[in-house]
């Protein structure tokens, strides 16, 4: 990336703390649509995300573009909202069973969750609700293992989808340096699987990886894999990713062969050899309940 690209697309150092603000939104459950139309609703316990991945498509959405501050530098916390969520679930459940994707535009287990515990309180509200049919918890943080007890209460109504885009921590440091190390995520998946929680590895977006990646995922005991890339999964056939200047990052590090639709096909074959074709789901299908 050039200097101007870096300014446009900042990746804060992990030592830089985001500005935290408590908010009281009128509505927590949002109707799901588009890529997530397999669900009735989405839930985002935070607005903003301290993990600040370079390729994050939310950077290109109005919530980030018009904030007037760099993505990753601020996080709004929907604190003290568990009772409100319980009421919203009850209301929504009168129409149809509620299926939730948490979260679509933030990470529900980003660092603010250590103290704020909004995600935990929402999982508790969902565990207590007869209206909740299913929730997919999408995260890249091992902090999710703190809430094993609540996840176990949810039982077959929950699946944890852990983002693991590569097995090479050097790639994690290049593309999302503020996100948790790959080894810690693999270990979290193993703990979840051993605790009987339904699991998925979200290789999304696929980053340059080693030939051992599929075997390393399989060794965790994870049940299935969702595989996606910029060209299928960024909501605009790769155009958002182009605008973010991610191609230059690949070029600068000699990784152009991975900025290509065919990279997914190569890794898909390796994953299917480990898991079987039925358990490797590509793009939108991978994120269905
Ligand atoms: S963890 Fe997800 S929401 Fe957060 S910056 Fe990364 S891609 Fe975006």
Topology:
Blueprint: H1 3-8, E1 19-22, E2 30-31, E3 41-42, E4 46-47, H2 62-65, E5 74-77, H3 82-93, E6 98-102, H4 113-116, H5 118-127, E7 132-139, H6 148-154, E8 158-163, H7 169-175, H8 182-194, E9 198-203, H9 213-218, E10 224-227, H10 230-233, H11 239-243, H12 246-252, H13 261-275, E11 280-282
Parallel strand pairs: 1-5, 3-6, 6-7, 7-8, 8-9, 9-10, 10-11
Antiparallel strand pairs: 2-3, 4-5
Iron/sulfur cluster (SF4) is lined by residues 49, 51-53, 56, 58, 106-107, 140, 176.
Structure write-up:
The structure is a single chain. This protein is an alpha/beta fold and 289 residues long. It has 13 helices and eleven strands. It is globular. The N and C termini lie far apart (37 Å). The structure holds iron/sulfur cluster.
């Amino acid at each position: 990336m050039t200097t101007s690209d870096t300014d446009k697309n900042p990746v804060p150092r992990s030592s830089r703390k985001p500005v935290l603000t408590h908010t009281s939104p009128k509505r927590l459950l949002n109707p799901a649509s588009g890529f997530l139309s397999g669900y009735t609703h989405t839930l985002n316990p935070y607005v903003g995300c301290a993990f600040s991945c370079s390729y994050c498509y939310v950077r290109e959405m109005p919530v980030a573009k018009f904030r007037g501050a760099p993505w990753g530098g601020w996080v709004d916390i929907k604190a003290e909202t568990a009772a409100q969520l319980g009421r919203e679930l009850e209301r929504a459940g009168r129409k149809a069973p509620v299926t939730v994707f948490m979260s679509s535009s933030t990470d529900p287990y980003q660092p603010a969750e250590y103290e704020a515990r909004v995600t935990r309180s929402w999982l508790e509200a969902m565990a207590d609700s007869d209206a909740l049919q299913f929730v997919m918890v999408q995260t890249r943080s091992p902090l999710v293992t703190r809430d094993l007890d609540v996840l176990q209460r949810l039982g077959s109504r929950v699946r944890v989808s852990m983002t693991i885009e590569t097995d090479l921590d050097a790639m994690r440091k290049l593309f999302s340096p503020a996100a948790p190390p790959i080894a810690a995520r693999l270990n979290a998946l193993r703990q979840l699987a051993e605790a009987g929680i339904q699991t998925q590895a979200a290789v999304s977006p696929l980053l340059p990886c080693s030939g051992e990646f599929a075997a390393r995922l399989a060794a965790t005991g994870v049940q299935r894999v969702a595989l996606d890339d910029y060209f299928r999964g960024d909501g605009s056939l790769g155009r958002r990713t182009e605008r973010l200047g991610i191609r230059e990052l690949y070029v600068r590090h000699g990784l152009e062969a991975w900025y290509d639709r065919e990279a997914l096909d190569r890794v898909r074959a390796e994953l299917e050899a480990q898991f079987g074709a039925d358990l490797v789901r590509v793009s939108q299908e991978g994120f269905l309940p």
